[in-house]
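Let us practice reading a record.
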Amino acid sequence: MLRLLFSALSGGLFGAGLLVSGMTDTLKVQGWLDVFGAWDPTLAFVLGGAIAPMMLAWNFSTRRAQPVLGGAFPSPPAALLDRNLVLGSVLFGAGWGIAGLCPGPALASLSWGGTGGMVFLLAMLAGMVATPSLRLSMDRLAGATP
């Protein structure tokens, strides 16, 4: 139960941070991504505000045998730069640049994002559902075995 409470509090804090920082404002995000145009560097503080606490959390977690709320720490991701990582990064970045939204801010803006926010969320969910079968098809075309 305590774990669910902390999850809800963390999610609420994350969503509030997205709203306060401007990450749910699509024009502000697109201004951040427009490095060679009307660049808006203010979201760099959001990035720094996300990276600094995570560095501390990772440092703290390496000194513990198990998480404070129980369970186990996830294993570190593989340091593998493969086709899936590159393709996923390109698609994520393209979607973020075109729509000005990514998954977190899209969910945070559902209550006021209007039709555009809902269309983005539905398209994102459709992409998530379609990805496994598309990945298998791509692997077959490339001659790779899953």
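A brief commentary: Residues 114-142 form the longest helix (29 residues).
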